[in-house]
Amino acid sequence: MNDYPKKMSSQLFAIALIAILTLCLKTGLVFGQCDFHWKLGEGVPGVSDDVYAMTTWDPDANGPQQELLIAGGRFTVAGNVLANNIAAWDGNSWQPLGTGMNNYVSALTVYNGELIAGGTFTTAGGVTASRIARWDGSSWQPLGSGMNGEVSALTVYDGELIAGGYFTTAGGISANYIARWDGSSWQTLGSGMNSSVRALTVYNGELIAGGDFTTAGGVSASRIARWNGSSWQALGSGMGGSYPDVRALTVYNGELIAAGWFTTAGGITANYIARWDGSSWQSLGSGMNGPVRALTVYNGELIAGGGFTIAGGVTANYIARWDSSSWQALGSGMGETYPYVLALTVYNGELIAGGWFTAAGGVTANYIAHWDGSSWNALVGSGMNDWVNTLTVYNGELIAGGAFTTAGGVDANRIARWDGSNWQPLGTGVDDYVYSLTVYNGKLIAGGYFATAGGVNANYIARWNGSSWQPLGTGVNGGVYALTVYNGSLIAGGWFTTAGGVSANRIARWDGSSWQSLGSGMNGEEVYALTVYNEELIVGGLFTTGGGTDANYIARWDGSSWQSLGSGMNSYVDALTVYNGELIAGGGFTTAGGVAANCIARWDGSSWQPLGSGMNDWVYALMVYNGELIAGGGFTIAGGVAANRIARWDGSSWQPLASGINSTVYALTAYNGELIAGGQFTTAGCGVSAYWARWGLPDVFTGDLNHDCFIDLLDMDWFTQRWLHRDCLYNGWCYEADLNYDLTVDFADFAALASGWLSGW
What we know:
The chain is mainly β.
């Protein structure tokens, strides 16, 4: 009752202001074409996925052009450029090599002044090139008709290019796992091997091949053999072990070095690495505790990389150096869940390591890094180094949370703020993933899987007051995956069973000073999504009961008890929002309320209905933007049309947002008039946009709330509805009408709109 006169005065004031502006301005201002598109985003530190092979190549031999580092693998982005599976580094920046390949690059070398790439690809630069191609500095060309299987090793021997791999034909002729290119056609090397060739080098004037084979040229040769120009011969009794193979070869101090997944060489113990002195196999100390996948020589020392953590009895995380007598680490090595070093080379006097890792020596370095003799460094990139799980707006800035540890080249542990031009950290961030964000009582709230925030204990949930992190009581005892505000309380959902020390099954409320349960909560499975609809709290997740009543994957809390929404879904609910007065749910389900509804459905207050034919895969994020419902996820089809991971529903049909995004979308919000997407992707539309992307108009016009490139009475009417409803915290319109981002739609926002209108923005 006390609020009613205040609300009425706000309504009358808003109506009066609209009347004044209507008299002053008869038409809106036009700002050109209204073509929405994806905007160019940020790149990655390094490349976007695994590096399998590296070499150096000088485009003009000893001419004035810079020698280049070439990296091949399965990435699509290198630094700030699109680079399909192959890229060149000039010492300062990454460059694509044409349009790259349509599949992995596994091997690289230089032959007759041209760069040679082998792998699993079937096209290079848009032309047919079956598993092998040459780059002349401007275009890709095939080498004959190529191979019928992967090329995984390349070298040059006796003036010819040698290729090894999983193929059995080369240039249309039988060539068991190994072949030679004489400059015009493919030829065999004897009768080849009986299984794959994984590594090649030249030693003492002979070609050396390593792999999975047990015979070469018909003679016994366990995983390694030599070709003298006319026949194959074994190197002693070769390698042995449970599943032996040879994956890497090089020459060091006049000896042949072989590495892989073996534990014996020539019948003696040799853990994953061994040396051949010309007549017998010898160990290199006690070897490693895991496979070796790459070898090179740097600063007079042998360098080995792979999947090991110990070399010669000392800790050496995935990379180590041998000084002729003992193994030593290179800094703290590489970091990732299961890291591997898969490729090594030397460029500009530095050691280059590539593989499957996201950190080197404790610094962010996505899949490739350089060692200057004393420390590891990244091969530059400006954006985040890992995916974004959640987005919101706080104090006029975009907030992103996720798995990343750097943003815009600065340290930002799992959470960062964007002021419109730069990323900045929020203190020292948190120590593990952030899954959810919201704003409550003027504070930013973050939930996730972290134990500390800003260095203080904060069990899975914390608040940022603009300068420091603080806990919310004693927090909860498990992951927080969803946050919202309902009836003046902060609501948290996730995988916990207690909040603030009291029982709270998967959902709890924070009243500003203490945690409380919501009835008996859910039946032991996660809560993934929260929203407010018809003044009730809506909860989605993996549960099948709420408060002891049947509630299949979705339930509603009316303030005192849990209720179902019809018969619910047949699988997970991961996302919730409100659109056109209806509740929208997204997830992995195929039915809602017993009717077919593929991954998305709408609830009109009494029953579930599909939205067209839905999606062909998971929906993880939902919001309202520009009067349309936006869905993001792992899908590639929406409503029967191609829509890569993101689509819009105009009230009757699904439409794509240009060519979409190249991997999963986990989060959506609006900021500065643009739709913001976060996820695991590296491209949006036709450009690089690593882990977050912006969709909008070429220019942002303050006050153009319906995004039609006009500021007029339609925008004023739309703004007024938001003002009068006073529902900023509960729906997708909030961050559009709340022009100053203070979580209230009021006169200050009206002033910003009017200023834009009157000034001609």
